[in-house]
Amino acid sequence: MTLPVLITRPGARGTVLAEALRREGVSVEALDVMQLQALPEDAAMRQVWLDIDQYHKVVVVSPFAAGCLSEALDRYWPQLPVGIDYYSVGQSTAALLYDQLGVRVHVPPQREGEDTSEALLRLASLQMLSHQRVLIVAGEGGRPLLADTLAERGAQVTPLAVYQRRLLTPSGPVKTRLAAGDYRALIVTSGELLEHLAKWCQPKALNQPLIVSSRRLATLAERLGFCAPIVASGATPPALIAALART
Fold first, then answer.
1. pLDDT tens digit string along 168-213?
2. Could you tell me the pTM of the whole model?
3. Which of the residues in the chain have pLDDT under 70?
4. Would you call 182 exposed, middle or buried from its count of C-beta atoms within 10 A (0-12, 13-18, 19+)?
5. Which alpha helices (H) appear in 107-244, and where do they start and end?
6. pLDDT tens digits for 130-150?
7. In angstroms, what CA-CA distances link 83 with 119, 129, 145, 235?
8. Which of 95, 37, 126, 74 is nearest to 235 (CA)?
9. Nearest to 137 by CA among 35, 210, 62, 193
10. How far is CA 78 from CA 11, 41, 155, 187, in A?
11. Nearest to 190 by CA among 138, 238, 151
């Protein structure tokens, strides 16, 4: 019997990853342990959309955030305002922004090796930000690294949460798999999800291959007791599939 690769990515991106793995002949089981939900638009959020032309830079941290941004700009700005520089942590987010808004997006160069906030912050155009207004479009919670660092560099930063993450308790069969390590590999690209799933991973699971999308996640995984995290070159399906090939 072929053991499945467990994936944890929620929503449409999870479907894309599952399909990419299956095209490679990999048996896949998607774990329904996180849902992403757009937050209702309140007066403060609406004002940000109306004032989007006042920002010099817009940083978008995930494809789901990019979708929320694109939908809002489509409603409030039939003609996209000019003069804004767009940034994203990963290639998937950049591609979605280009597809939906037609904007070019600054991303960490491939030589950085990872799609991370740390890599994005090394871009030359994000070093000196005096008198710059920067909007960060993200989910609720998450790491404050981007906002804190950009503010330290002189930017006037507006963090805007446009969605929330809802963690779900694994179903009975999923709990059994995690406890027994009954899978080929586990793919996780979120620290929040990794901490969540670790609660149900028993020693055998902790010794199974764990594929993560950054060195930061590998460090977290080791702290949680995972013995052999494998660091992919990013969070894209090709990067994760290449890492899986090393197991």
1. 999 888 899 999 999 999 999 999 999 999 999 999 999 999 999 9
2. 0.86
3. 1, 111-114
4. middle
5. 117-121, 145-152, 172-180, 191-198, 203-206, 215-224, 237-244
6. 999 999 999 998 889 999 999
7. 24, 16, 25, 29
8. 95
9. 62
10. 27, 19, 28, 39
11. 138
Residue 121 phi, psi (nearest 5): -70, -15
Structure tokens at 58: 């817009």
Taking the chain, what is the end-to-end CA distance rounded to the nearest angstrom? 18
Strand partners, 28: 5
Q: How many CB atoms lie within 10 A of CB 168?
A: 13
Tally of helices (H runs) and strands (E runs) in the chain: 11, 11
**Strand positions, DSSP E, 45-167:** 57-60, 85-88, 105-106, 133-139, 156-167
Query: What would the 3-class secondary structure string for 86-102 be?
Result: EEECCHHHHHHHHHHHC
Residue 100 to residue 70: CA distance in whole angstroms: 6
The pair of structure tokens assigned to 11 is: 């929503």
CA distance 10 to 165: 10
Both tokens of 223, joined, read 């702290």
